[in-house]
Amino acid sequence: MRYLWFLFSLILIACATPYQRSGFRGGYSEEEVGNGQYIIRFRGNAYTSSFTIERYAYRRAEEFCKEKGFQNYKPITGQNSVRQFTTPDSYSCNGSTYGNSYNGTCTHNGGTTYSKPITEILIECVQPIDNQNSSTPS
Fold first, then answer.
1. Which of 1, 41, 68, 129 is deepest in the core (most CB within 10 A)?
2. What's the distance, CA 129 to chain centroid?
């Protein structure tokens, strides 16, 4: 039984959104909004927690500002939300046919609702990195 739980957990972890640029399974994106401010957005899939997505967004904010030549960032606002979608209804039938008649049962399966977390943070990159040598010539 422990083996089955381990296997199930491993499958769920494999399906979760990895830390990556936005793609099929989710990920991060950036958008410049002016005045040196940026929106960092991280979208997860239905197998990733809101907590993880929020951590990923703040991690991306730090990396993004360093790529832009800054030491750090200042969060201005943040927002967590959830997108929900429901799969279509389906029907399954089990039985047999004889000539023009059918003998069996059909079951209606309602759709399944999934929640996908999103974190958006508005940031400003601060403290430019000084790439010059700090020693002064004599």
1. 41
2. 30
